[in-house]
Design brief:
Helix content: under 10%
Largest sheet: 13 strands, antiparallel
Strand content: over 45%
Number of helices: 2
Number of strands: 15
Structural class: mainly beta
Radius of gyration: 20 Å
Shape: globular
């Protein structure tokens, strides 16, 4: 199998559709050992994006503009929850995110013109699942090649330590097919410290798998991804301790619009 150097290139603007849907199961325990179990089934979120990849200096600028956002009729039926969720999600409409990266996908900077919604767990998973590009190796590779990427991303105020394994499952002149698996660990850390309340992450774990096909010119992608998260959080408020253990599973897709 011939080997070749893989590099991302600028390309024409295109439109894409993404979907994501999560289910969260939580167990909440208070100082008095009262325990509550809760399941939240988030509606499916669908976004219409306009994406452009242009040359910038020696690298590339990847710009994603959110044209439309909608949520499905399924998911949790509680009207108050759905109303809060939809208001939160709709904040993303009209926002633009620009990521500057090298031809091998090493991110230099990423900017967003509006703070993402405050639904911590869902957004952590969504941000991770939608990682724009897979980092490519410097050396030439062929089908069957595997490499590992270590990272320390900070997502929604949480510091993570991650390892991603990437495998080439298909390669043509302009298109790359990959299978990826990532494991991220969130060590104990304070999430919020206020005079009367402290929120601390006791343990965090994210596991993500993706199958994707990406055009090397312009970065149009077809993606199917699954992620699971385990988050243990402790809140101290006026002497009361509340511990929550949450497991979240998310399915994410992305495809260009013909």
């Amino acid at each position: 199998e011939p080997r070749r150097a893989l590099r991302y290139l600028p390309g024409p603007e295109f439109r894409a559709t993404t979907t994501s849907q999560s289910i969260a199961d939580s167990t909440i325990t208070t100082t008095t050992l009262d325990t509550t179990k809760q399941r939240l089934e988030f509606p499916l979120v669908r976004k219409q994006l306009t994406v452009a990849v242009a040359s910038e200096g020696t690298g590339l600028a990847l710009t994603q503009h959110v044209d439309e956002v909608s949520i499905s009729a399924d998911g949790d039926r509680d009207p108050a929850f759905r109303a809060r969720f939809e208001v939160d999600v709709q904040k993303e409409r009209g926002t633009t995110r620009t990521t500057r990266l090298s031809a091998t996908g090493v991110v230099a900077t990423a900017t967003q013109d509006q703070t993402p919604p405050a639904l911590l767990i869902r957004e952590l998973l969504t941000l991770t699942a939608q990682d724009e590009v897979v980092r490519l190796p410097d050396e030439p590779v062929g089908v069957g090649a595997t490499w590992r990427i270590t990272s320390q991303p900070r997502l929604q105020g949480v510091q993570w330590h991650g390892v991603e394994t990437v495998r080439v499952t298909g390669l043509t002149a302009g298109e790359l097919t990959l299978a990826t698996e990532a494991e991220l660990i969130g060590p104990p850390q304070d999430l919020s410290v206020q005079p009367t309340q402290t929120t601390r992450l006791a343990r965090g774990r994210l596991h993500l798998t993706k199958q994707l096909t990406v055009s090397l010119r312009g970065l149009a992608r077809t993606v199917y991804g699954e992620s699971s998260a385990e988050l243990d959080v402790i809140v101290w408020n006026h002497g009361l301790e509340v511990t929550s253990s949450t497991t979240v599973k998310t399915v994410y897709t992305e495809k260009p619009v013909p």
